[in-house]
From TrEMBL:
<comment type="subunit">
    <text>Component of the archaeal exosome complex. Forms a hexameric ring-like arrangement composed of 3 Rrp41-Rrp42 heterodimers. The hexameric ring associates with a trimer of Rrp4 and/or Csl4 subunits.</text>
</comment>
<dbReference type="GO" id="GO:0016075">
    <property type="term" value="P:rRNA catabolic process"/>
</dbReference>
<dbReference type="Pfam" id="PF03725">
    <property type="entry name" value="RNase_PH_C"/>
</dbReference>
<dbReference type="InterPro" id="IPR001247">
    <property type="entry name" value="ExoRNase_PH_dom1"/>
</dbReference>
<protein>
    <recommendedName>
        <fullName>Exosome complex component Rrp41</fullName>
        <ecNumber>3.1.13.-</ecNumber>
    </recommendedName>
</protein>
<dbReference type="InterPro" id="IPR027408">
    <property type="entry name" value="PNPase/RNase_PH_dom_sf"/>
</dbReference>
<keyword id="KW-0269">Exonuclease</keyword>
<dbReference type="InterPro" id="IPR036345">
    <property type="entry name" value="ExoRNase_PH_dom2_sf"/>
</dbReference>
<keyword id="KW-0378">Hydrolase</keyword>
<dbReference type="InterPro" id="IPR020568">
    <property type="entry name" value="Ribosomal_Su5_D2-typ_SF"/>
</dbReference>
<dbReference type="GO" id="GO:0003723">
    <property type="term" value="F:RNA binding"/>
</dbReference>
<dbReference type="InterPro" id="IPR050080">
    <property type="entry name" value="RNase_PH"/>
</dbReference>
<keyword id="KW-0271">Exosome</keyword>
<comment type="function">
    <text>Catalytic component of the exosome, which is a complex involved in RNA degradation. Has 3'-&gt;5' exoribonuclease activity. Can also synthesize heteropolymeric RNA-tails.</text>
</comment>
<feature type="domain" description="Exoribonuclease phosphorolytic">
    <location>
        <begin position="158"/>
        <end position="223"/>
    </location>
</feature>
<dbReference type="InterPro" id="IPR011807">
    <property type="entry name" value="Rrp41"/>
</dbReference>
<dbReference type="GO" id="GO:0000177">
    <property type="term" value="C:cytoplasmic exosome (RNase complex)"/>
</dbReference>
Length: 241
């Protein structure tokens, strides 16, 4: 049997598919596991495409440093770290400006979901270790951290889930790979509380028109809702229905 594709049909197929074969609104293969570290209060492991991320949560526990204490609530601290072997060219060990920035925005993205008033003068530590990186690690880290916090038994209003959309070759696409991020014209990481779609993180790097911004935001939120189902499935496997 011979299948003939006309030039117009070939154009539509080539525009619909990306270099890795995904459709514009398709996320990379995703796997999430909850509670994999015995010595942490909560933990998770996430694979998204070539990303491999491990998260450990400790607390809530009394803040030993008095200047960190808040009399009315707990404080959440996040440490995002990329292992030296996580990227193709060996990364210098230790924090850099990018990891400090991502640590800060991760804490800010997670904070609205947590009922911190239940634990005054306490601290919650979230450690995000990127074992392998392949684009979109900040969104993957936020998503995994939310599962680890739930695994730790933290009272939460909702999960937090993150996903990015962006513009590649003039097209709005979901969940940019590392190569797409490097070559693309724009990248927009978004984190939400799925129940009411409240946005807890919105960043934009690159040039988007008003219409493209709205399209990318809508696509990122749809991606978040897809990922949230995998978060819930991971917790159900650990704790049952």
């Amino acid at each position: 049997m011979i299948i003939i594709i006309t030039p117009d049909e070939f154009k539509s197929v080539s525009e619909a598919a990306r270099e890795d074969g995904r459709a514009p609104d398709e996320i990379r293969p995703l796997k999430i596991e909850a509670g994999i570290l015995e010595r942490a209060d909560g933990s998770s492991y996430l694979e998204l495409g070539g990303n491999k991320i491990l998260v450990a949560v400790y607390g809530p526990r009394e803040a030993q440093i008095k200047k960190l204490q808040r009399p009315d609530r707990a404080v959440i601290r996040c440490r995002y770290n990329m292992a030296p072997f996580s990227v193709e060219e060996r990364k210098r060990p230790g924090p850099d400006r990018r990891s400090v920035e991502i640590s800060k925005i991760t804490a800010e993205a997670l904070r609205p979901a947590l009922i911190l008033e239940k634990f005054p003068r306490s601290v919650i530590d979230v450690f995000i270790e990127v074992l392998e990186a392949e684009g979109g690690t900040r969104c993957a880290g936020i998503t995994a951290a939310s599962v680890a916090l739930a695994d730790a038994g933290m009272p939460m209003k909702d999960m937090v889930v993150a996903c990015a959309a962006g513009k590649v070759n003039g097209k709005i696409v979901l969940d940019l790979s590392e190569e797409e991020d490097k070559r693309g014209e724009a990248d927009m990481p978004v984190a939400i509380l799925p129940r009411n779609k409240e946005i807890t993180l919105l960043q934009s790097d690159g040039n988007l028109t008003q219409e493209e911004f709205e399209e990318a935001l809508d696509l990122a939120i749809k991606g978040c809702l897809k990922i949230n189902k995998v978060q819930k499935e991971a917790l159900k496997r650990k704790y049952g229905e």
